[in-house]
Every structure is written in structure tokens, then in C-alpha cells.
């Protein structure tokens, strides 16, 4: 059976637009979704990222959380006939406040998978308060509980398999230890890319601010260099059939271009086609 990815809708957050795209519309507030992902079709269900703990915790970043009863992770999983105890692995792209807030919903015999470099970064204080205390304290408990945590060493290994058809690779962007989660689907490789991309339209598709050909715009929230982030985005666009960030609906990619946007499953029906700019001779 082919693997399929289902989006889990954990609610929305309101934040300044320039946090999403560096220098864009400073002071303007934008509302964006927070997604997780459920991978089905393998031996066990896998969840990628668990959203934010509650609305109040987002205030520590000056943001507004908009999470309601239907957005609770238990209710999102139930839509697919899955309970937290059914999930074999919770895999993290990284451990920021809106990605690892509900790990404690899962029993200790569910293994949380995280790149070791990301765990180190989460306790370093370098991006405090984006790694909130209650989330990281729970992960520390998992470190000291048998089989409750699995560390990856992606900077050394390059890639590590989680189950057949699902593996992790270093993202080399956003945070020091961010990972991409790659899934083999019936229609090609899909990459759950965390926050390496925040917004397809303003970073990649729109020509409104672009000067150089095929040049993506960087986010307003990255721990590394702008060069590294641009390169990581280009690699995604030139490697995978589908890209699934956390804060914008998935995209279909062809020849390095975003050509379509999808709904709540990948592969799944296209909800919007995206015209590709055409070169014209002078």
C-alpha cells in the first residue's frame, strides 16, 4: 500500500508578516495555519510535528494563538481513526514552540524522533523563548525513559530511515538541527520541510520583489545564514515532487517551479494551479 500524508489542522497563529518573509510589510499582522502531518499506509501511523501547547503560550513570542476544540491533536487524529496510542513515531522537523507542544499527549512507548543537534540547540538558549520550558522539559523526561526518544545524527549520516518509505535528511536551514521528512508516495517523493519555507507565494512564486531569476526570498526567522537558507530552498525545489511546509498548504513542484497547490492530503486533488512565468525574447 502506498504511503499517504494527511494534514492535521492545529489551528492558526497571528504574527507580523516580516517574521514570515524578511522585510516584507513590517508591522502588518497576518494569520497563518499551523499544520502537522499524519503518514498512513505503512506498518504504523507516524505523526510529524505536534503544534503548539495552547493559545496562551504563543503570547511569549508576541503572537496570538487561535486553537479551538476541533484543532486539538486527539480530535485531528480521530478524523482518520487514529488514537495517540496507535502512533509508533512522532517525528520532528524541529522543536520550536509551534512544532513540539503536544508531545506529552503521546504515551512513553511512542518514540519521539529528533535530530540530536536540534535537541542540543533547544537547551542552548540561542533562540529562547522559541523553545518553551514545558515542551523541552517533557523531552528531557523522554531522554531518560527507555525507547521514548530516538536521536538522529543527520549532519554525519546524511539520511536515516524511520520506516520503509520514510526517512529524514538534514534541512540545513531555519534552525541548526532542522530536519526534512521524506515520504515515498504513489506520485513521487514528498518532503515535509518544516519552516525552511514559510510562504510559497511571497518567497518563491511572486515576481513583485524579485530581481534575480529563480531567486527565493528568505524568512524573517532563521538561525543560520541567508545564503544557507536560499540554498536549502533551492534544493527542495529541485529535488521533490511535493513540498509540505507547516504554515502554508502543500505545493506540487515541476522543474523547480511551484505549479499547483493541494488540499488536506498528499497525493490528493489539486485545489489551485499556479502559472509558471514564461521567458519571452526582447
UniProtKB/TrEMBL annotation:
Annotated keywords: Hydrolase, Metal-binding, Zinc
Molecular function GO labels: hydrolase activity; metal ion binding
Protein transport is among the record's keywords: no
Metallo-beta-lactamase domain residues: 33-247
SMART domains: Lactamase_B
InterPro entries (alphabetical): MBL_superfamily_lactonases, Metallo-B-lactamas, RibonucZ/Hydroxyglut_hydro
Family that this chain belongs to: Belongs to the metallo-beta-lactamase superfamily.
Name by which UniProt lists this protein: MBL fold hydrolase
Source species of the chain: Metarhizobium album
Lineage of origin: Bacteria, Pseudomonadati, Pseudomonadota, Alphaproteobacteria, Hyphomicrobiales
Amino acid at each position: 500500500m502506498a504511503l499517504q500524508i494527511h494534514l492535521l489542522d492545529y489551528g492558526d497563529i497571528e504574527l507580523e508578516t516580516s517574521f514570515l518573509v524578511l522585510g516584507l510589510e513590517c508591522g502588518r499582522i497576518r494569520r497563518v495555519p499551523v499544520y502537522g502531518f499524519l503518514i498512513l499506509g505503512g506498518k504504523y501511523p507516524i505523526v510529524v510535528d505536534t503544534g503548539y501547547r495552547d493559545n496562551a503560550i504563543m503570547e511569549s513570542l508576541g503572537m496570538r494563538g487561535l486553537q479551538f476544540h476541533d484543532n486539538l491533536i486527539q480530535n485531528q487524529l480521530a478524523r482518520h481513526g487514529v488514537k495517540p496510542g496507535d502512533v509508533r513515531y512522532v517525528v520532528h522537523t524541529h522543536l520550536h514552540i509551534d512544532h513540539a507542544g503536544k508531545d506529552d499527549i503521546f504515551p512513553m512507548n511512542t518514540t519521539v524522533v529528533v535530530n540530536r543537534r536540534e535537541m542540543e540547540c533547544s537547551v542552548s538558549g540561542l533562540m529562547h523563548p522559541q523553545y518553551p520550558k514545558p515542551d523541552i522539559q517533557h523531552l528531557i523526561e523522554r531522554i531518560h525513559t527507555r525507547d521514548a526518544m530516538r536521536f538522529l545524527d543527520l549532519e554525519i549520516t546524511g539520511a536515516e530511515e524511520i520506516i520503509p518509505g520514510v526517512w529524514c535528511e538534514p534541512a540545513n536551514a531555519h534552525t541548526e538541527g532542522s530536519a526534512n521528512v521524506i515520504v515515498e508516495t504513489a506520485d513521487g517523493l514528498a518532503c515535509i520541510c518544516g519552516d525552511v519555507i514559510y510562504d510559497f507565494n511571497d518567497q518563491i512564486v511572486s515576481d513583485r520583489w524579485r530581481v534575480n531569476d529563480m531567486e527565493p526570498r528568505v524568512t524573517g526567522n532563521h538561525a543560520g545564514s541567508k545564503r544557507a537558507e536560499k540554498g536549502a530552498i533551492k534544493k527542495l525545489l529541485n529535488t521533490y515532487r511535493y513540498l509540505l511546509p507547516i504554515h502554508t498548504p502543500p505545493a506540487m513542484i515541476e522543474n523547480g517551479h511551484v505549479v499547483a497547490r493541494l488540499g488536506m492530503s498528499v497525493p490528493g486533488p489539486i485545489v489551485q494551479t499556479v502559472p509558471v512565468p514564461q521567458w519571452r525574447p526582447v
